[in-house]
Design a protein that fits this description.
209 residues, 2 domains, 7 helices, 62% helix, rod-shaped
């Protein structure tokens, strides 16, 4: 006789799917140890005291070996994954800083190479804003190329990070768009200083040189 059917329970680790469970009456499958899940509206210490009191009232010889909150159990089960994720975050931040510095260097070099051209454009009537937009656009193009390559690589390598994700799709569009937008903002910020320097070029000095 089937009394009821419930969804699978992940009782080992959040990243391991449920293997299926069967509930048996205690009289048919008695064990030395039992695990109880208790939910209450009290503080943790008050709830533990209430549980111990109730157990003693049932049988004074029974003892409670371990008491832990569900949050603490989940924290312990995901400790390794959180540590790896923290390392990934640190190295990702370092990579972002190196990428920003590299982009700044490249855009600065390209801007310096075109100082004479920009000076000539300004002599012919180009405004400082036009020069600023040109340099920023070049930096944005380089950043967009890096973002495109990065998105392709991230989608291709998501299977290696399966154990670090819980309830998040490897191709989550919100995450991908947010990361792409962040990198584009970094690209614009890294290109801003070279662009401002380009607007201060003395057109006559560039032509004389």
């Amino acid at each position: 006789m089937v009394v009821g059917v419930i969804e699978g329970i992940r009782d080992v680790s959040p990243d391991r799917p449920s293997g299926g469970q069967v509930f048996w009456p205690f009289q048919q499958s008695a064990r030395w140890e039992l695990t109880w899940l208790v939910r209450g509206e009290f503080d943790r210490s008050d709830l533990i005291a209430a549980v111990r009191r109730e157990v003693r009232e049932v049988d004074a010889d029974l003892s409670i070996a371990t008491v832990s909150s569900l949050v603490a159990l989940l924290h312990a089960a995901t400790a390794e994954a959180r540590f790896v994720a923290m390392l990934g975050t640190i190295f990702s931040g370092l990579a972002l800083g190196l990428a920003a510095h590299g982009l700044y260097s490249v855009v600065t070099y390209l801007a310096v190479q075109r100082f004479r051209e920009m000076g000539l454009r300004m002599v012919l009537g180009a405004q400082a804003n036009d020069v600023l937009k040109r340099v920023l656009w070049k930096g944005l193009q380089l950043g967009a190329l890096g973002v495109a390559l990065g998105l392709v690589g991230s989608v291709a390598l998501t299977r290696f990070l399966e154990s670090l994700r819980y309830g998040v799709s490897p191709r989550d569009p919100v995450t991908l768009v947010a990361v792409a937008a962040l990198f584009l903002l970094v690209a614009v910020a890294a290109s801003l200083l070279p662009a401002l320097r380009a607007t201060r070029v003395d057109p006559l000095a560039m032509i004389r040189s």
